[in-house]
Amino acid sequence: MKKIAYETRPINLLTEENKTVEYKKIQPFGAVPALIDVNTNGHILVESVAILEYLDETRPEFPLLPKDPVDRATVRALVQAIAMDIQPVQSMRVIKYIGKEKESQWLHHFLVEGFNAFERMLQKTAGKYSFGDSITMADLVLVPQFYNGVRYGVDMTAFPILFRVNSTLEKIPEFKAAHPTQQPDCPVEERVEHVC
What we know:
The protein has eight helices and two strands. By secondary structure, the chain is mainly α. Helix 3 packs parallel to helix 6. The chain has helices at 21-26, 48-58, 69-86, 92-98, 100-125, 137-151, 160-169, 173-178, and strands at 34-37, 43-46. It is globular and about 45 Å long.
């Protein structure tokens, strides 16, 4: 959306490349993503939401947060609902800890619970997109989370607003290009022609 030039350096989580000493110098938790901004002498930023906010503040064209403070806080609440409530329970670190035998039940339970809550939030905020009729930061975090729901076998049609917003977003070229299945580090078995 912001047309920012970047270079991708994939970190393979399946081979635990994120746990190497070299990578932990960049991201102490060994999580992804990390951003090294060459425009600031290589300053390293970590955590998805912090990176999104930094990019939005330093590249103000096509703002991803509304100007109105209440609207901005509402979009941030949508972002945090995904980043803090839904996504963490499905991180590789958590899944490894709970074990393969409980993985499916665990993921299904917490994803459905999270998507139900997010659907209730969207009932108050959604227009064409997650918040009204402009693309916001909430939409950027929604699409990969929706993909995880599909990936883990959740019936996403049970969340009609979320489903509609995601379908609308996935038709936008920038969202198609950023889709998890289109990333260079996507496992081959998941690399499919993604169609809405």
